[in-house]
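sorry for the late reply, my laptop died twice this morning and i had to redo everyting from scratch. anyway the thing you sent over, i finally got around to it. pasting the sequence first so we're on the same page, its 754 residues, then the predicted structure underneath. double check i copied it right bc i was rushing
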Amino acid sequence: MREWLERARAWLEEKPARADGAALLTLTLLWAFYFWRVLTPNPANQVSLQEGDFSGQFLAFGAYQARRLLAGEIPLWNPYNYAGLPFIADTQAAVFYPPRLVTIFVSQFTGGWGYAALQAEVIAHYWLGALWTYLFVRTITRSRVAGLVSAITLAYGGYLTGYPSLQLAVLEAGIWMPLGLLGVYRASEAADSEPNRWRPEWLALSALALGISLLAGHPQTSLFFTYALAAYVIHRAVRQRLDWRATLPLLVATIGLGFGLAAVQVLPGLEYTRLTIRAGYGFEALAGGFPFPDLIVFLLPNVVTTWSPLYSGIAALALAGVAIRRKEESARFWGIVALVALGLSFGGATILYRLAYLIAPGFSMFRGQERAAYLIAHSLAILAGLGTASLQRQPPQQKTARVIGIGAALAWALAVEVFVADRLLPDVDLFRLAQASFFLAILATLTWALIGRAGRYAQAAWWSIALIGLVVFDLFSVTMGTNWEPTPASERDLLSDLVPVALADRSLFRVDGRLGLGENYGTLVGLQDIRGTSPLRLAALEHYLTGLPQYRLHQLLAVKYVFTDWHELEIPSTIRAESREYGFPIYLHEITDPLPRAWMTYRVMVTPHEEQALGWLADPGFDPRSTVILGAGPELNLPEEPPTDWDVTVERYEPEHITLSVDTPTDGVLVVSEWDYPGWQALVNGEPVPTWRADAGLRALPLRAGTYRIEFVFRPLSVRVGAGISIAAGMMILLVGGILPLYRKLHGRGTRAG
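ok and here's the structure:
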């Protein structure tokens, strides 16, 4: 058997492409095995991702994105959640993320957009993440086995298989870092033959990877990517003794091109963020992270928390220790990255995050500092590959075997201790802790046997297969069932029985879907909901939700239907339908006399302070039908007695284009139940006019007596400028990364940047 394995390896290594093809096939087969219950055609064995953020956020937004793009429209505005939001500016919508565009296109030939289509996109990213990691580690170590170990460790470790599969933007933004690192390594690789020279065509690959990561829609993950990429450029410059006069400009250009490529989403996102509740978050709201006891997850997964983001496997930890102990190239660098990321992951509990919050650009914008586990997972995976390659070059010393053996003995001691008495973690289920402890002991023993004792055979083909098998056994056993439920995707029923009743009404209205619609399902089905679950919502809406009585909220936002467990509302309504699928009665109320989407008012109250405006709005005596609150007094001759014969008709309502016909017998103020948001332009009889902010968040236009055709068009400057920058950056990446190298090759030139 050993002889046959060696002959097979020799045959594969005759041609590098043949061996890489075998490695790629191995990754693909492992991927298919890991997700076989998603890929199987047998409904009895099928699983699907649990509902929640996956369905309520990403499935819903993807459905809207698909509808608009397939209709030949760019979805700039979304009227179906939060009473309207700038869709392109909600970064997690990932409007221009290339793999999402592929999913939308392919789904039209496989049953249309739905749960199964988005799940296919999810699992495809695990394959892509494994591929990029393999290419990077195989390149830096010259070992395909090392590349496979790193790829499996990252793709199927506790981090990527935890919440990122449900928080899809985290997964999709995160897998591109190894490709960016590969670009940096190859760009600096020629330094031995050409001292002090970079190859910018490979840095174009890094810029492309960063840009795609940003387009995926999780800026915090892309921020970690950016810092790791910058640190790696500096590390390679020091190690390869590259000219600093070229290094720093190329670093700035690489990051600049990456952000430039994604500017069409980044600029609107920045504009939106400053107007959301996120803009008011201070240090305390952002400084959350791992509690220190979560460190046990490095060794005992699935015990302390639902997910185990710090778990990369026992063999991977041992291999990482080998790489650091032997001072393998870049091992110290990745060890430092892991330690810094670990310090950041505790949030405000350590001084490290406090410093980053004060001095590092971007760290004061995001909460959830435990997501720094992203860098820990990548660092440990890369270190595991470095350790594997080191063992293949030189067998482990007796001291290494002894250390691993001691670790295995301690693991067994822990398992026995947990089994006989619940002394270590009294708040954790004893059975789960005992099970995890015994599994740790088994893995530690196998690691000691394979790496510590049999490590002298590391150059043999059977040892490589055994090592890969150990890593697969470890990670697949721990993470294979995470987030998956035994329900076929085709059987996911996300909507209550009340939804079709509201959908049957073809008039223009909004709903309050807090109970009975929920999530972002307004976007999914096309009901204009005033609520949602996106982490970004306008501060004006938040002030409405928290500062106004529910009846006033419904009035100002033109709500006609209310999904609620209330049997009676504060204002007259009729129950149109009832459902008990939640275990208690849910009613669909139709409000008897809802406000229209636009109306004329003839009384004005003035205050520049929105807090005071909200106080007036909350007063039961305030009537929004007749009175509007503005920040300044308009130059109008308002009548003493408001007329009743005005007319406002919505002639056209589309996400980015609203047309009204207005007839007012006297001067007055038109109030439109739409958010006052940058980029909405008003045209009155074809002439552009500025809009006014009304009622602490809505849109208004002062009008003289007369008849008008009024249009509101959403044309945000941030999108237009961002699109121009993205196109320019994309052309520059194509020029530097593709056209110039091809030109030099065709003309026999070997010029390098320096």
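The domain at 598-611+626-714 is CATH 2.60.40 (Immunoglobulin-like).
thats about all i looked at so far, will dig more tmrw
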